[in-house]
Amino acid sequence: MASKPKFEYNIQDMQKAVHAVQNKELIVYKASLLYNVPRSSLKNSLDGKTTIENRKLGPPPALGDHEILLVNWIETMSKRGFPIVSRHLLVSVGKIAKKMGIDHLLNILNPSKK
Q: What is the CA radius of gyration of the chain?
């Protein structure tokens, strides 16, 4: 079963749908059909659970901007002929997590040290 593409709607259509529901011109279901936006996303925007512009899926990265640095490091090392094995990656992530004070991530990386 193929997954449904995410964010197939544009922000302007979502804004129009939100406006129509807020002005009591349409109910959520009909506005989502008319403007071709997901009903759940429209409902979340109306309930204040998310903003129209915030279209990210899932929680923020555990390591924040450090995740991008890790990916760049892995790619660079690989291009230079030094692929990163999982042990090296776990050590690097552990150092970053320790520096950031993310104790729960350290437990995940090394479950034997509980």
A: 21
